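Notebook, bench 3.
Goal today: get a predicted structure for UDP-N-acetylmuramoylalanine--D-glutamate ligase from Hymenobacter coccineus so we can plan the truncation constructs. The sequence was checked against the plasmid map this morning, with no discrepancies at the termini. Length recorded as 456 residues. Pasting the sequence as submitted so the record is complete.
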Amino acid sequence: MNIVILGAAESGVGAALLAQAKGHAVFVSDRGAILASYREKLVQAGIEFEENQHTLARVLAADEVIKSPGIPEKAPVIQALREQKTPIISEIEFAGRYTKAKCICITGTNGKTTTTLLTYHLLHEAGLKVGLGGNVGRSFAEQVIADEHDYYVLEISSFQLDDTHEFRPWVAVLLNITPDHLDRYNYSLSEYAHAKLRIARKQDSSGYFIYNADDENITRYFQAALRPVMKMPFGLEHRADLHLAGYYKAATQLCVDLLPGYYSKTETISTAQSPLIGEHNRQNVLAAALAARVAGISIAQIEGALATFRNADHRLQAVGEVAGVEYINDSKATNVEAAWYALEGVKTKIVWIAGGTDKGNDYSPLVDLARQKVRALVCLGVDNAKLRAAFEGVVPHVEETQLMADAVARAGALAQPGDVVLLSPCCASFDLFKNYEDRGQQFATAVQELASAKPA
């Protein structure tokens, strides 16, 4: 088969290597420049490629196209392929054809990276042969070349799900659906929700669908009665109207019931040793624990592994303590909802560092939490007028700066012992930083410098 791959980053190069390994003719085309590390992989494999252009005649000659999730449907090259009815698939769809391993696939608007990493950690620590891929870790397709794993835990975005057709996860996890990326879905929440629900569309009675029954958009759009899959709804609290597979009976005690015919009694798992904070992370832990129990991981193994889990950087990440004040890096919180989770999750008084490139934010959902918890707000952005307007009069003290080191120093001066200095920006980072990772790293560095400057 003549396969063309559009996009030469992690997923595209992985797909190219797998396609070559399976005997297909392969051509890779990237409209932009290819990173040196990926170009080197293609050169070493002897795979033909082009960069900074799409040679349309070459692309249209494909029997099948594997598309990078970042390429929108409206791109001219995609429209041309659709017009001649060339099959377009994702790396996930392609890799799924070549493995018999059990795939645990996780999606949701928020929390999918944390849940994916935690689920992988629970399986790995229990000694299972498990790979990590999708939106996090190595390319799923590249791992399938050797196919050394019995399980894969995959973070899957709606963009990746758009071009799946026959891919069938063993366990599908849907954490939540809130408005995001709507420009890719004709500004329709319904279209976006159905893109997320594609994760379960091919599942049959041998599969499991773990979903958040507290999420109104999931319950609105998921036609549960029409699906043959083993449905495992979860929620933060026990419900009389729905048989939940997982819920909390206390703050750090979750209950799991894997349904009649599998496990007939409710089991209790302690989450007291988990380092994750916030209500959203309680949901993430619940989903991961359910997936782990389905995979046969024991309660003792889950409890032990929860204690050793380290989340991805820049997600409510503790980076230091100076003079009795804890510093938490939540630079990944680039929207109002993510910042709400952070403010809600911290249980002490907060000195909040926020600001950046505003994406049309409505800050009103944060006002009550800010009034209750925030001692001071340090605005960090080129233009802080909208942030100041939202919170002046709500929190006792608001000031602004345009340097991370100054923001951390001022926050430290405004904080009292026992407080938390929280970087949870609510905004994109591109006004002052390369990206959210750069912003978070500068925060961590500034905290280290502040610690070294304090007298012992």
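The CA atoms of residues 322 and 454 lie 8 Å apart. Residues 2-89 form a domain with the Rossmann fold fold (CATH 3.40.50.720).
Flagging this for group meeting.
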